[in-house]
Amino acid sequence: QCGKCKAATRRLNLNKYCKRDFAIMGRVLSRVEDPVDEHTKGWVRFMVSVEGVFKKARDSRIRRGPTSLLVPASDLACKCPKLKANKSYLILGREKDDSPGGIPTGNIAVTQRSIVIEWRDEWDQRMRRFRRRARKCK
Asked: SMART domains attached here (predicted)?
């Protein structure tokens, strides 16, 4: 039922960077047990401290500091992605998804199309390089 977890890919290149709306480095603080409401039904909320913003859309609400990150409950059941408290991750994804069952408005979310990689300090330089090169993104 689960299949291969695409979010846990180990490789990141400029093409993948360009195709995502945002790129952040965030530390998972906790999993939040929300009362179920219509907007977040089927999603699990994590509190994340955004420690670095490498890319975001012009109209984005992503800022440094605490924010919530949504993960589909069905993906989490398959441990995709595997998120652990007090670990930092490089997270690339889409902010908007207007399709039915898409990302609830005003949230950042990890879906099958996202990339989630455990953070390593040497990636700081690499992300800066991507940011410079991203001006050529189509």
From this structure: C345C
R_g over Cα of the chain: 14
The length of the chain is: 138
Minimal CA–CA distance to 111: which of 100, 122, 119, 103?
Answer: 103
pLDDT in tens, 35-51: 666 666 788 889 999 99
Q: Is residue 125 domain-resident? A: yes
Task: Tell me the residue range of the domain where 92 lies.
Answer: 6-136
Query: Total structural domains in the chain?
Result: 1
pLDDT band at 74 (very low <50, low <70, confident <90, very high): confident
Instruction: Give the CATH number of the domain where residue 82 resides.
Output: 2.40.50.120
